[in-house]
Amino acid sequence: MTLRQLVPWVVGAALIALPFVYRDPYHLHILVLILIWSFAYTSWSMMGRFGLVSLGHGGFMGVGAYVTALLWNHLGISPWIGIPIALVCAGALALIVAYPCFRFRITGHYFALVTLALSGIVLQIITATRDYTGGSLGYTPDRTKGSHLVALQFDDKTTWYLIALGVWGVGLLIWRWVDRSMDRYALEAISEDEDAAAAAGVNVTFEKLKITVISALMTALAGALYCQYQMFISPDTVSGIAVSLQMVFAVVVGGIYVALGPTVGAIITIMLAEGLRIGFGTKAVGWDNLVYGVLLVVFIIFLPKGILGSLLERIKPSSKR
Amino acid sequence: MQSFLEIFDIYLLEAMVNGILLGGVLALLALGLNLIFGVIDVTWICYAELVMIGMYGMYYLVQYYGLPYYVAAPLTILLVAVLGALLHYLVIAPLLGAAPINQLLATGGVLFVLQSFATVAFGIDFRNLGIRLPVLQFAEMHFSYSRLLSFLAALVGMVVIYLFMTRTYTGTAIRAIAQDRQIMALMGVDTKRIYLVTSALGGALAGLAACLLVLQYDVHPFVGLSFGPITFLICVLGGLGNFVGGFVAAFLFAEIISLGGLFSDLEWGYVLAFAFFIIMMFIRPGGLLARRQ
After folding, report:
1. CA distance A313 to A315
2. Which one is the CATH code of B2-283: 1.25.40, 1.10.3470, 2.60.40, 1.10.3820?
């Protein structure tokens, strides 16, 4: 057992040491993207694993990215203060949409479609306020003239790699914390049968709201990080239905019920997109989504537990949850 | 009377009438989605993408093969109906026993496939039919004939569906399955066949909508995203599977978009419609016409 407890530490140390040994900027860039998106996908699956399929996470991500960037550009507020404000906005948005949903028992299809409306609203508002946000042309946070640390803008990939790695690690810790808490049992009971769970003394609305807000906060943080790292955001890359579906797709492919599933999903989707882009260049426009779509359908039909989920089940069939 | 006219100036009136005309097509889209949901209990997230494929079908039939509009339209409707049946056969049928949310996500995958297929096969250029219909001038207001035609055709389509559902054996079986899917199988109705027919019917409605929308809008691979979300909202607002509710909600939404667009940008019309939707979810979570429990 001691060996198994050692593995996360060894892997963690190796991941931290990696940028000091290996310095290829392109590969580090891909790794940073994988880590940031893994974090976003993990935050989606915090809810998704309990049957709360939200298509509104594109909205939360957009709020996180745009609020941070707008505060910096228009009011000169450092992202260190801007990101918490953005998180509060995303959390409030999650409460406003989720509370009536849970209070009035909007579940399943209805919940997915209501949250779909949310990501639609955020996309339309960003496009409509084009005087401030640049509309569909996208938006760039101003380059800082002062301290890089205050502006949270770093030129070297190593710093970003370490930041993304840290955030990703925190995401996994939150997953673990939820996984080991009583909330997990409550939420699993809710996903099986809400009435029975309520009869057994579970506060259904409160439990669902809690996990939704946690998930929304994490997604908004991922959006803000993505914005600070890429220094360019557009409504289509951080908000809207396409981003929401992309999250669902990556998580389903990786494995929705295991902690590292979203990470595996992020690795597969980003490598696939990059591979097609390098292999075929501009001819590949559209092909990556075509492959995504076919894979998503095939996975849901034949391998609903995802790659990692199915693998882990194959390795240790005795220790079924 | 004078003050009445001052409030309802001519632009407002024009926007309202245009809203009603837009509502016709939206109601047609909502009807197709509601039909699928009511009978098979599945939401086709990719519904608007079927419409997009239909619009491309119209474009190629008319522009490349030189078919007249009224010959191309039935062919397109048939094409999308076949697509709808295929979608059911290939994707939904294997998932009928799975969690409902999986079916929704699988059609989300189909959305990706159709969108990127269109990107790869047709390119991302905006295309249009090149048919310019005249503009109708009435009491200082301007309405395009294409909108008027779409509105009338959508109404006719809905009446035909209504007659089919109430006057034929298959239609009756579809309505019966929507009420109780277990019992109908015991009553000797071939559920699988009914599902397939319903999917084809839903596809045909998407095809009809495509024929009408292609008169007003340019086709591009992402055109589905501009009216897809609205269609889902209409269906949820009216109550999923509730035909009359969907009809009412379609006109409400179209009016909000049209009037909101009059006072500011078109996007604000959409934002208003979305906000209205969320407020209505507080007030009437079960849908516009749902009975209070």
Report:
1. 6
2. 1.10.3470
* A121–B274 C-beta distance less than 8 A: yes
Give chain A's domain count: 1
Which ipTM did the prediction report? 0.75
The predicted structure's pLDDT at residue A87:
94
Q: What does the pLDDT look like over A124-142, one tens digit per residue? A: 888 888 888 887 788 888 8
Residue A317 scores a pLDDT above 70: no
> Which of A100, A101, A293 is nearest residue B109 as measured by Cβ atoms?
A293
pLDDT beyond 80 at A243: yes
Nearest CA in chain A to B106: A297
Tell me the per-residue pLDDT of B17-37, one tens digit each, with 9 for 90 and over.
878 888 888 888 888 888 888
Neighbouring residues of B41: CB distance < 8 A, sequence distance ≥ 6: B100, B181
Of the candidates A167, A36, A41, A44, the residue with the CA atom closest to the CA atom of residue A94: A44
Residue A54 Cα to chain centre, angstroms: 12
User: Do residue A301 and residue B91 have CB atoms under 8 angstroms apart?
Assistant: yes
pTM of whole model > 0.90? no
Q: For B61-120, what is each residue's pLDDT tens digit?
A: 888 888 888 888 899 999 999 999 999 998 888 888 777 777 888 888 888 888 888 888
Q: Which of A307, A256, A246 is nearest to A42 (CA)?
A: A256
Region B148-157 average pLDDT: 84
Which chain B residues have a beta carbon less than 8 Å from that of A117?
A: 229, 232-233, 236, 274, 277-278
Q: Which residues of B91-110 are buried (b: 16+ CB within 10 A; e: fewer)?
A: bbbebeeeebbbbbbbbbbb
| Cβ atoms of residues A50 and A178 within 8 Å | no
In a domain, A7, yes or no: no
Give the residue with greater pLDDT, A23 vs B205: B205
Question: Is residue A58 a contact partner of residue A123, using CB atoms and an 8 Å limit?
Answer: yes
| B169: confidence class by pLDDT, cuts 50, 70, 90 | confident
**Mean pLDDT along residues B175-183:** 78
| Confidence band, pLDDT 50/70/90 cuts, at residue A269 | confident
Give the distance from residue A44's alpha carbon to the nearest chain B alpha carbon, in angstroms: 14
Å from A147 to nearest chain B CA? 38
Distance CA B87, CA B46 (A): 10
Structural domain for A179, as ranges? 24-239
